[in-house]
Write a structure and sequence with these properties.
Oligomer: single chain
Radius of gyration: 31 Å
Order of helices and strands: HHHHHHHHHHHHHHHHHHHHHHHHHH
CATH architecture of the domain at 1-155: Alpha Horseshoe
CATH topology of the domain at 1-155: Serine Threonine Protein Phosphatase 5, Tetratricopeptide repeat
InterPro entries: Ankyrin_rpt (IPR002110), Ankyrin_rpt-contain_sf (IPR036770)
Pfam families: Ank, Ank_2, Ank_5
Keywords: ANK repeat, Repeat
Length: about 425
């Protein structure tokens, strides 16, 4: 039975927004009306329309809750209705907010089982009811379902909501009943709550749908304090997610302190993810020289290559990191490794028109007569190919200086360019 109060309590939602009589609004109303009619008839619902909102912002699911039609509500949820759709961008009202006004708690139970979360209007009140009615399994089922949907992986669990509101009574009961402790560990940024979850015997290496652990999440957000707490609790420091990322890889570039902490803890510094990224590559890209030095002291494999067969020196040149290039050369990186496109570090520096990198590489013993995949040697690229592509006199002058440096370093001047012109002849014509 529903009391008169049930109906009165809906007044705050009924006229929240004045109905727009425009043609667009009529179409929206028609779509939601059709979904509602199909649901009441238990007909299959078009997935595109099931979460549509009418002119007042109501979905068919909200209308089913409002009309106290539990069967239709459950049918819509089974058809994929999203219980977390908001009535409007300025409102936090969801179907769960509406269900809070009903005395029949089965509506709340059904919505929770299908992933309704408590980060909504009146969410704390609903959570109180759910706990008082021991809906623990329903909450766990729904939150597990939410965690497996990629677009909704970042959400507040019931435990996090209770903790955010300072409700120790709810926190205690949820922990005692082991309600989504692993998920809460992954999603909370509260040190105090993390300590409580760990103390409850939760597996700190719990993984989500993407294979990430709480340590991955803490590293990604640059939270050194949480990282330290989890490592002390025996979190796997080299855990790998589905994309091959370790916590160290995810900590770059979010926190230099966290990066240094992982390196100091003797984690796997030679790990490579599915994109071919190694810690050394990422540190070079973001210009973290001190952390690169820490890796080198720990014995990182300096000549690792990515999926394009570039090494860290190629990356340093591409990112204009001169000091890092110097550091890598001092630590004996191979200056003559060729990419799949046949580019050595020297050829790459020539393509960039960077005389300072060219001079650095020549001093390091780079092969001055190396050729790219088209058979163009370093000298030809400088004085023929790149000279023609130069956009102004300044760029042309740089290429001439590079050519002079190559010749002084012993470049073969009788090599032939793409037009069968002696390279030295090309230089003289400039």
């Amino acid at each position: 039975m529903f009391s008169e109060m049930d109906f009165l309590l809906y007044d705050e939602y009924e006229d929240e927004e004045a109905e727009d009589r425009s043609f667009d609004s009529k179409l929206r109303n028609d779509v939601v009306r059709q979904v509602s009619n199909d649901a009441r008839s238990r007909k299959s619902i078009n997935a595109v329309d099931v979460n549509s909102r009418n002119a007042n912002g109501n979905t068919a699911l909200m209308l089913a809750v409002r009309s106290r039609d539990l069967g239709t509500c459950q049918f819509l949820l089974e058809q994929g209705a999203n219980p977390n759709v908001l009535r409007s961008q300025s409102s936090m009202v969801t179907a769960l907010s509406m269900a809070n006004k009903l005395y029949n708690t089965q509506f709340i139970r059904s919505l929770l089982r299908h992933g309704a979360h408590f980060s909504c209007s009146q969410g704390l009140e609903v959570l109180e009811k759910a706990v008082s009615c021991s809906m623990y399994n329903d909450i766990i089922t729904g939150e597990t379902k939410l965690s497996q949907i990629k677009s909704r992986q970042n959400f507040e669990t019931a435990l996090i909501v209770a903790n955010r509101h300072g409700r120790e009574d709810l926190v205690t009961r949820l922990i005692q009943n082991k309600v989504s402790l692993g998920l809460s560990l992954m999603h909370t940024d509260s040190l105090d709550l993390i300590r409580k979850i760990i103390s409850a015997g939760t597996d700190v290496n719990f993984t989500d749908f993407s294979g990430r652990t709480a340590l991955h999440k803490a590293a990604l957000s640059g939270r050194l304090d949480i990282v330290q707490l989890l490592v002390e609790a025996k979190a796997h420091i080299d855990a790998v997610d589905q994309e091959g990322n370790t916590p160290l890889l995810l900590s770059i570039p979010n926190s230099k302190e966290t990066i240094s902490y992982f390196i100091g803890k003797s984690c796997n510094i030679n790990c490579v993810n599915s994109k071919g990224e190694a810690p050394l590559f990422k540190l070079v890209k973001y210009g973290f020289l001190e952390q690169i030095k820490e890796l080198l002291k720990k014995g990182v494999y300096i000549n690792c290559v990515n999926s394009s067969r570039e090494n860290a020196l190629h990356m340093a040149i591409k990112e204009d990191k001169y000091e890092i290039a110097e550091c890598l050369i001092e630590n004996k990186i191979d200056v003559n490794i060729l990419t799949f496109d046949g580019l050595s570090a020297l050829l790459l520096a020539i393509d960039k028109g960077s005389d300072i990198f060219v001079n650095l590489l020549l001093k390091a013993g780079a092969d001055v007569n190396c050729k790219d995949s088209r058979g163009n040697c370093a000298l030809i690229k400088a004085i023929s190919v790149n000279y023609k592509l130069a956009r102004n006199d300044s760029e042309k002058l740089k290429n001439i200086k590079i050519a002079e440096a190559l010749i002084k370093a012993g470049a073969e001047v009788n090599c032939i360019d793409s037009d069968s012109i002696p390279a030295i002849g090309s230089l003289l014509r400039k």
